[in-house]
Amino acid sequence: MTSFGLPPGFVFGTATAAAQIEGGVHEGGRGESIWDAYARTHKNILDASSAAIACDHYHRYAEDFDLLQGLGGQAYRMSIAWPRIQPLGRGPANPEGIAFYHRLLDALLDRGIQPWVTIYHWDLPQALQNAGGWQNRDTVDAFADYTRILRDEFGDKVAAWMTVNEPVVHTGIGHAIGRAAPGLMMLGSAFVVAHHLLLAHGTAVHTLRETLSSPVGIVNNHSPVQPATGSDRDARLAVLYDRYHNGQFAGPVLTGRYPPELEEVDGISFEVIHDGDMEIISAPLDFYGVNYYFPTRVGAAPPFYPVPFAPKKFVGVPVTDFGWPVMPASLLTILKQLKAAYPQLPPVYITENGCAYDDGPQDGLQRSGSGLQDTRRIEFLEQHLAAVGEAIAAGIDVRGYFHWTLLDNWEWQEGYTKKFGLVRLEPATLERIPRASFHRYAEIIRSTGSPP
After folding, report:
1. Residues 32, 153, 352, 411: which is the catalytic one?
2. What is the CATH number of the domain that holds 342?
3. Could you read off the pLDDT of 102-157 as tens digits, one per residue?
4. What is the DSSP code string of 372-413?
5. pLDDT in tens, 142-197
6. Is residue 166 annotated as part of the catalytic site, yes or no?
7. Count of domains in the chain?
8. Does residue 352 have an active-site annotation?
9. pTM over 0.85, yes/no
10. Which member of 166, 261, 390, 426 is catalytic?
11. What residue numbers bound the domain in which 55 lies?
12. How large is the C-alpha radius of gyration of the chain?
């Protein structure tokens, strides 16, 4: 074992999403996504911004990959924008979009960096949303066609595939309570969206494996759940929320079954499940992606709250600029819980983990030889890597870690107000300025001696 108990060969990387960094939304034949439409109503975005420019990665990807090469990361988790490939979500591929991603993938390979590609990171073409989006089972067929295009065009360049990113967040925030694109308030009836996302995942696994042997997995957001009080009611609500957040998406993929407790949530009905769906969803995986940011405490909701459980604060715990509690031990907890619940758990990669901290009074904007002062992010990174090392020591097969994210980006409904980057993005000029955490992560990667 080397630094933090991570074995030689452990994969280090960073993670991004096309909608958050590319910009160029009106270039190269790209169509409109649900996030473009959502951002047009400025009250939906905290700073009234949009992703029209984002990080301008569409034009500056070579510069960003030079940074990535300097970091020493062996892998780069990226997503491909569905509207850039199929502007209306259906039909023939857009040649300009195909050419762009060939250039981008080649630029990574030229630098010795493995492309790990997420097929769907929440940027559904708006034309498909107009036809019902993920409520419409036909969207699953459209996703299979889209996957087939990516497979045939880029299959020889992609090191690993991730089908769908965080379906629990896309379902819950975007479709159940309307605080992200597409902004729907379906509450429990959003289960149809969850099911169709998982069915799209399973269909994509089958589509990729028709001609490719590269590894395939899914990316789920996981959070250990505990009750806010010692009451029987809160204990029961904690179990219910655990099944909603964790079991609703891990269970079908890893066991072919939804947790039966889900039917206790108003609006959820298993009638949307067709014969054969669960067999498709539970296709064996080569790896399982875990996104972890924070644990969750839940308790009885106040009157008129849209769901029966409500999040509760952790008292006396440091928080990020998002207000998320910093509890690295909970990463070890959720990995242990997943292994206990699913003994057949495939090899795990931490596909996202990071923290939002601005360059404010605590860290400042002072430059040094090791970049912008960045103490809190360095502590977060080190503590969570140590938790990964503990998980490996406990017998859990964790094989890699992707830090969220390479550089400050357009953080969905938060606009540009939350800073997750190892690299600062100067708002006025888009200059890339490495923080001290960038250099510390590079040191950690070098200390393992992990080969590409």
Report:
1. 352
2. 3.20.20.80
3. 999 999 999 999 999 999 999 999 999 999 999 999 999 999 999 999 999 999 99
4. E--HHHHHHHHHHHHHHHHHHHTT--EEEEEEE-SB----GG
5. 999 999 999 999 999 999 999 999 999 999 999 999 999 999 999 999 999 999 99
6. yes
7. 1
8. yes
9. yes
10. 166
11. 3-448
12. 21
